[in-house]
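F.,

This is the one I mentioned.
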């Protein structure tokens, strides 16, 4: 007798589209960090997109050149299209789209991505229920959360100590413990964790 199989719920998908392979890989890694609940695909051309069920994607992160050459397609889907552009100022051609300036320092680009994520999907909003499962149990102590929050807001160790009225060596110890508990090695990674888990509002993070 056959036993019924349980269908595994699929994670929502977003896609990065462009011709520069290294840029695609880098953007995929950033997006996967900012939105760990989603699956991120990369495609090298518009032709590949149209051949891969394009409307199954929740968002398209696509280079300006492709958007301009296939404007009719993306205009119909402009609410879920984010244009990856090297132009700092908004152009008339792209005024109907959300744009992400990619030629900026990592911390500023990360901040911009977190703002996009928080404005559209804070706490899993507008994503399927399968992507909004409860967060993992809290692994940090209350004091460690306080220290982490100040670190990602841009405070240096001495300023954290002053804010919390604790010793500098205590801050350094907390910082080391936080990184070890979360398995992280950079402030950028810590920033992503703090914002996506609701410990710090993205508007308080320095871009």
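My design for it:
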């Amino acid at each position: 007798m056959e036993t019924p199989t349980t269908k595994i719920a699929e994670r929502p998908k977003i896609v990065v589209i462009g011709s520069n392979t290294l840029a695609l890989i880098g953007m995929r890694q950033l997006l996967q960090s900012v939105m760990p609940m989603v699956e991120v695909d990369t495609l090298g051309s518009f032709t590949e997109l149209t051949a891969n069920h394009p409307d199954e994607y929740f968002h398209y992160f696509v280079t300006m050149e492709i958007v301009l050459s296939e404007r009719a397609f993306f205009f119909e889907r402009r609410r879920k299209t984010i244009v990856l552009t090297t132009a700092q100022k908004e152009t008339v051609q792209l005024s109907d789209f959300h744009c992400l300036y990619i030629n900026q320092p990592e911390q500023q680009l990360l901040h911009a991505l977190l703002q996009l994520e928080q404005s559209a999907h804070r706490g899993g909003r507008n994503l399927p229920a399968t992507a909004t499962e409860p967060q993992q149990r809290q692994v940090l102590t209350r004091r460690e959360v306080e220290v982490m929050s100040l670190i990602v807001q841009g405070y240096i160790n001495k300023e954290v100590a002053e804010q919390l009225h604790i010793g500098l060596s205590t801050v350094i110890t907390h910082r080391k413990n936080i990184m070890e508990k979360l398995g992280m090695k950079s402030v950028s990674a810590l920033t992503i964790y703090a914002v996506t888990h609701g410990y710090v509002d993205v508007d308080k993070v320095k871009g």
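The first helix runs from residue 21 to 34.

Talk soon.
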